[in-house]
UniProtKB/TrEMBL annotation:
Highest taxon above the source species: Archaea
Keyword terms, alphabetized: DNA-binding, Repressor, Transcription, Transcription regulation
The organism of origin for this protein: Haloarcula argentinensis
Domain HTH tetR-type: 9-69
Protein name, per record: TetR/AcrR family transcriptional regulator
DNA-binding region: 32-51
SUPFAM superfamilies reported for this sequence: Homeodomain-like, Tetracyclin repressor-like, C-terminal domain
PANTHER family in the cross-refs: HTH-TYPE TRANSCRIPTIONAL REGULATOR YJDC, TRANSCRIPTIONAL REGULATORY PROTEIN
InterPro entries in UniProt: BetI_C, Homeodomain-like_sf, HTH_TetR, Tet_transcr_reg_TetR-rel_C_sf
PROSITE patterns, per the entry: HTH_TETR_2
Length: 198
């Protein structure tokens, strides 16, 4: 499947990275095309050449961000469904967040409240959840078909795993409960061993 980021030209990719920096440095409330152009070190007209509004830019930026998550997950998926599922969990809930990963997670948390009242953002976050759930579901389904996992409903298992991951990601960035991530991850590994593995 062709990703949105695959179709971006070099200037658009530069705009995506500049948007990322502007969001991390200023937050959504203070974000503007001017701030993004400052991070880009190019005129605002460069941005408006590709995007006719801040919202249009942010919606493309969300797709760009989730492409990066998906690419990180998919590059290490192999032939062992259990190990692949563990890899997905470790990728989305690493023991230590690199600065880049913290920024990626922060961007999603920063923009997610926009989905409460704005349909275009709700649609985009729906797509993000669907894409992540699909990766997990396909991995569980492979495990069921290979008799590595029990005959469980892959959709239900994927939704449970994704909900735990998302809640933990949000808590990690918005609270000081440092041990919660390790506990949630251990709980997911326990769930895989006790409820999925044949």
């Amino acid at each position: 499947m062709t990703k949105e980021s695959d179709a971006l030209c070099e200037t658009e990719k530069e705009i995506m990275h500049a948007t990322h920096r502007a969001l991390v440095n200023s937050g959504y409330a203070a974000l503007s095309i001017s701030r993004i152009s400052n991070e880009l070190d190019k005129a605002k007209s460069t941005i408006y050449h590709y995007y006719d509004s801040k919202d249009a830019l942010l919606l493309r930026f969300l797709r760009f961000t989730v492409d990066r998550f998906e690419e990180t997950i998919n590059t290490s998926i192999g032939d062992d469904p259990k190990q692949d599922l563990n890899h997905i969990i470790r990728t989305l809930l690493p023991c230590q967040l690199t600065e880049e990963r913290r920024q990626l997670h922060s961007v999603l948390v920063t923009l997610s409240p926009q989905a409460l009242e704005r349909e275009v953002f709700r649609e985009q976050f729906t797509e993000i959840d669907t894409r992540l759930a699909t990766i997990i579901e396909k991995t569980v389904r492979r495990g069921v078909e290979a008799d590595v996992f029990r005959d469980v409903d892959p959709t239900h298992a994927a939704e449970h795993i994704l909900a735990t991951i998302k809640g933990t990601m949000y808590s990690r960035l918005t609270t000081d409960r440092e041990a919660a991530t390790a506990a949630a991850k251990a709980s997911l590994f326990s769930y895989i061993d006790s409820h999925l593995v044949s």
